[in-house]
Request: fold
Amino acid sequence: VELEIARRLVPAFLVPNLKFNQAITGERKEKAAHDVPLIKGYVKQNERIIDSHEIVTEEVYQKLQSLSLALQERAAARTGWAQLKFAAGKYLFAVILLVLALLYLYFYRKSLFDNNLLLGMVTLIFLLQLAGAAVITRLLELSPLAIPLLLAPMLLSILLDFGVAFIFTVTLSLILGASLSNDYTFTFMMLVVGSVAVFSVQKIRNRGHMFRAILFILLAYLVVHVIFGLLHFEPMKKLLVDFTIYLVPNAILVPTIVYLLIGIFERVFDVTTDISLLELSDLNHPLLKQLSVKAPGTFHHSIMVANLAEAAAEAIKANALLTRVGAYFHDVGKMFKPEYFIENQMGGVNKHDSLTPHMSCLILANHVKAGLELADKHNLPRSVKQFIAEHHGTSLMTFFYHKAVENGDSKEINENDFRYPGPKPQSKETAILMLADSVEAASRTLQNPTPQRIRNLVNTLVENKIKEGQLDECNLTLQEIREIKEAFIPILTGIHHLRIEYPAEALDRDKRGEREKRPVENRGERTVKTGPVPQPTPSTGKKTDTETGKEEYGYGS
Reply:
């Protein structure tokens, strides 16, 4: 009761003398904010703010920050003619860099300009890199550290070669650095990390190589990021956060995306990478399995040729993997009529004995056309098809040509009718295959394959190809041809090495010889001396002088 009485009486005697006025309070806040100075001081034109080796004080730091903001405000405030000049300068800078890169490629990678598909691929990758940078910085407004700067360098290195990738890495790093408010810190990062990426994926052939590339890229990112952090006095905590949020995902995701994009670019632009070549080098490939069943002699010949060609390609620093794969598939067209090729006749009847030289020539030449049809059916890349088309060049089928001349009027025989359709080898790799194919087939005709006879054979065959002009279009130098021959000889010597005769075999041979010399008694009839029954020698389609190594090319090669 007492409290209730007090509650009613107190308001009657105590009247508030201070009341809140929202309008007056608002006015006073505005006045107080207006009275706060927007600037702490002024920096006059050409006034020195700080020099090298001086301590950065709080005042100096504020001046530098104010200068950065002022420059950004001025850039944003540009309109009309000033903005146009600024944009024109940036685009002109990019165009000049791009022209210089293209001029370099034109003089040192001219083959790139002969293939419109490859030019289109390079252009698309270049635009994808620029688009990725624009999306990250303009659309998503993320840090430049999030730009997928390894996309173009890695794709170009895997799909083309190191030289093209490095040139575009330098060009893109300068262009992107200029577009990011002339931030050449980013330029240096892309140049260093991009170069590491280009080197690390140059010979990528499996997943392990990709993981190794990711590790190298992470290390490059870390080193460059720490260097620039130290130069700009960045706190270690901020460096660690930026590295974890931006650079680690960049180093892992971009190579993964590149690995997935390789197959698409290969199919669309008809490019062959080492990854695809390794898949094609599997002898369980359906086309090679068919060849091993339908033409086992040709299959074995292709394996031997592949060993020779790969060794020669490694000797002259050519693409050894491509050469090996091309050798596997170069004779697949023989599986349509395998019995017409000497390596598949197994000492049986030679079907060419019943054919005219012209018909034999047509059958042999057709294996090139048939091989290209099979290659199209099995979606072999263009680089492998070239081995099928070029491995004989425009060589003359000498055996059948001379046979036709002997059978008829030489004036009516056209030599071109007995040549392969060509073209001649257009690359070092296909030229190596042509030589390996010839020497492997010819070496089988040597009666006593001593190392010197093998060397003479190789030298003669290669010289004949040079004289025929079969190597005129492949850019092989004389030094490289010499190295190719030297690579062939030890392998052929190893293949045709003489085996030691075991005692049991020697005894059987002596017994057979004694029986052949012993007179044969024929039931009271007169006895006669008999020797081995002469056997008809099957036509091989090839004549070789084993002493000199000179060969007349036939249908067995």
Summary: Residues 236-269 form the longest helix (34 residues). The longest strand covers residues 543-545. The chain has two domains: 91-271, 280-495.
